[in-house]
Amino acid sequence: MRYFLLLLLGLAGCTSFSVFDKELPKLIGQPIDVAVQQLGFPNAEQTIMGQKVYTWSTRQTGTSIVPTTSVTTAYVGTTPVTATTTSYTSQDYSMSCVLRLIVDDKGIIRRYTYDGNNGACFTYSDRLG
């Protein structure tokens, strides 16, 4: 189960970042309102070194239950007896994504950056693709 979750997150991430790489360049030269229509309202708006920066961010945390199966073989006389037991442990996870669009003084998108975990970025890549 644990490896399935990691594989799923990895696949989702490849998709998220490839969508970003394909779709975010299309926003360059567009008014910020175009991005807001696709992504929703940003989480933050700030001015850094005279440039307006809009930030979309998300964080996901949780706990997954991971099964562990053990097989034990014992002998009753000369006859092998096999027993299978399953125990469960919890494993915490944390994922995040930050997408920033930098606009000029006319509100036109000039640059973008993104960072985070692939699975969390699906929140925004799904809206773009």
Brief description of this entry?
This protein has 129 residues and is α+β, with helices and mostly antiparallel strands.
Protein architecture, described:
It is a single chain. This protein is α+β, with helices and mostly antiparallel strands and 129 residues long. The protein has one domain: Beta-lactamase Inhibitory Protein, Chain:B, domain 1 (2-Layer Sandwich). 32% of the residues lie in helices and 50% in strands. It has three helices and four strands, in the order ααββββα. It has a four-stranded antiparallel beta sheet, with helices on one face. A hairpin with a 2-residue loop joins strand 1 (44-48) and strand 2. The longest helix is centred in the first third of the chain and has 22 residues, at 2-23. The two termini are 29 Å apart. Mean pLDDT is 89; it is low at 1-13.
